[in-house]
Write a structure and sequence with these properties.
Length: 119
């Protein structure tokens, strides 16, 4: 159990600095002349507690992704999780919050890819 929690925490640390850049809607085209805004995201580990000695006491059960603005993602198409940690049970969400439910079985990293073509 120790290694599972640390692997999930390390994965969160590795991918925590990702950001989207979204363009304003401009149906008339114009290519690059419109405004852009930075959409940031934060990750929250659900489960995966450690005791006062830094030793894991429970496994990670999910990862919550919170965006700084509403994004238009299809959880089944736009969010992909890779790694030898176990299985992805479900990916749900809309708007600003998405949740990836995990079945952690091994001490491996989970890497999250987000393909934001609809951002």
């Amino acid at each position: 159990m120790k290694k599972k929690t640390w692997a999930a925490a390390l994965a969160l640390l590795l991918i925590g600095s990702f950001a989207f850049i979204g363009c304003d809607d401009n149906p008339g085209g114009g290519g690059g002349g419109g405004g852009t805004s930075l959409i940031t995201w934060t990750l929250t580990q659900i489960g995966g507690a450690v005791n006062s000695e830094g030793m894991p006491t429970s496994d990670t059960t999910a990862i919550k992704i919170t965006f700084s603005a509403v994004v238009n993602l299809d959880p089944e198409e736009d969010i992909y999780v890779e790694g030898g940690f176990g299985n992805v049970e479900d990916i749900t969400g809309s708007g600003r919050e998405y949740t990836i439910e995990l079945d952690v079985q091994y001490s491996e990293l989970a890497v999250i890819f987000i393909f934001g073509t609809r951002v």
